[in-house]
């Protein structure tokens, strides 16, 4: 490639980034990368590039990933049908094993390898690693679904100080070594709170929280935490969106300043969110 063929970076655009870089310098950016947003390789690459860029720009990205669709497919392969109650997977022993294999075995390792390929240190962690996510059974009817009791942020902070990008799988562990499947949205909220993250971004497969207006479905740009129960009761928010908005509401109530639900299927949606005050998805606020 000759020098003239090379693309030039636009200096004006870089300068426009200064206020945002200043705002987020050395701040934890909690990114929940939902399984439904892991659409294809190209999009995955872009999400990873955004995360890596944040790190090189002096932020502290922490990734908590999902993988619901992949767990469902893997269970189908062994002839098991998935059942959800209010967005939570009913988890028997076999489902627990498969969930753990998919989340911490497959997805976390893939994300870590992708991040590392850009020269950034990354590490995959599950709830049992360093006592990261202490959990107990949520409800016997859901089987091995965990309720988070405590997040041990010390380990994550140490890793951040050592310039790692932690990639966290939502598996919890109790003091007897029993492991639980935890909805990744719930885990995202609790981790954001514990790390004092000013920003929590939920990457999903829809533009934001939607509501029908006439014949059309439209994004609700802002939701007050007080409105959430009504939306759930009225059937506006259902399925996987329930734990998501509940997790976001808890974060907002416990000090996370900005909580966004955005469309992870859009190219470089994370960077667009960080480097702009115009938010396209749904902001959850108090
Ligand atoms: N009001 C709503 N607005 C947007 N999505 C909703 C709503 N109610 C239910 N959903 C469902 O929630 C899904 C997102 O949750 P989920 O499937 O758990 O995604 P993720 O894998 O990103 O956590 C959407 O794709 C949609 O099917
Ligand atoms: C208890 C429970 O529901 N656990 C989730 C964990 C994965 C997850 O939350 O993945 P997404 O973010 O892609 O939905 C599950 O088994 O699907």
From TrEMBL:
Keywords: Amino-acid biosynthesis, Arginine biosynthesis, ATP-binding, Cytoplasm, Kinase, Nucleotide-binding, Transferase
Location relative to the cell: Cytoplasm
EC number of this enzyme: 2.7.2.8
Transmembrane segments: none
GO cellular component, one term: cytoplasm
Molecular function GO terms recorded: acetylglutamate kinase activity; ATP binding
Positions annotated to bind substrate: 67-68, 89, 181
Leading EC class: transferase
Every Aspartate/glutamate/uridylate kinase domain range: 27-263
InterPro entries according to UniProt: AceGlu_kinase-like_sf, AcgluKinase_fam, ArgB, Asp/Glu/Uridylate_kinase, NAGK-C
UniProt similarity note: Belongs to the acetylglutamate kinase family. ArgB subfamily.
Protein name as annotated: Acetylglutamate kinase
């Amino acid at each position: 490639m000759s020098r003239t063929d090379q693309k030039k970076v636009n200096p004006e655009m870089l300068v426009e980034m200064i206020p945002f870089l200043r705002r987020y310098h050395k701040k934890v950016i909690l990114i929940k990368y939902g399984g439904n947003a892991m659409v294809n390789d190209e999009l995955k690459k872009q999400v990873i590039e955004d995360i890596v860029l944040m790190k090189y720009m002096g932020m502290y990205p922490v990734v908590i990933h999902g993988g619901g669709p992949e767990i469902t497919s893997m269970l189908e392969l062994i002839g098991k049908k998935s059942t959800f109650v209010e967005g939570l997977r009913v988890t028997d022993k076999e489902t627990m094993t498969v969930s753990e294999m998919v989340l911490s075995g497959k997805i976390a390792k893939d994300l870590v390898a992708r991040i590392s390929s850009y020269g950034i240190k990354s590490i995959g962690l599950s709830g049992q690693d360093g006592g990261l996510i202490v959990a107990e059974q949520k409800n016997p009817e859901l089987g091995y679904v965990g309720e988070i009791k405590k997040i041990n942020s010390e380990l994550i902070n140490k890793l951040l100080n050592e310039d790692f990008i932690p990639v966290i799988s939502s598996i919890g562990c109790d003091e007897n070594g029993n492991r639980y499947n935890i909805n990744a949205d719930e885990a995202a909220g609790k981790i954001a709170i514990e790390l004092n993250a000013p920003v929590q971004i939920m990457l999903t497969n829809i533009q934001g929280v939607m509501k029908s207006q006439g014949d059309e479905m439209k994004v609700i740009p802002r939701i007050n935490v007080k409105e959430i129960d009504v939306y759930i009761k009225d059937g506006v928010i259902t399925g996987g969106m329930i734990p998501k908005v509940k997790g976001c509401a808890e974060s907002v109530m416990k000090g996370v300043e900005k909580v966004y639900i955005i469309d992870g299927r859009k190219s470089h949606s994370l960077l667009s969110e960080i480097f702009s005050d115009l938010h396209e998805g749904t902001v959850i606020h108090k």
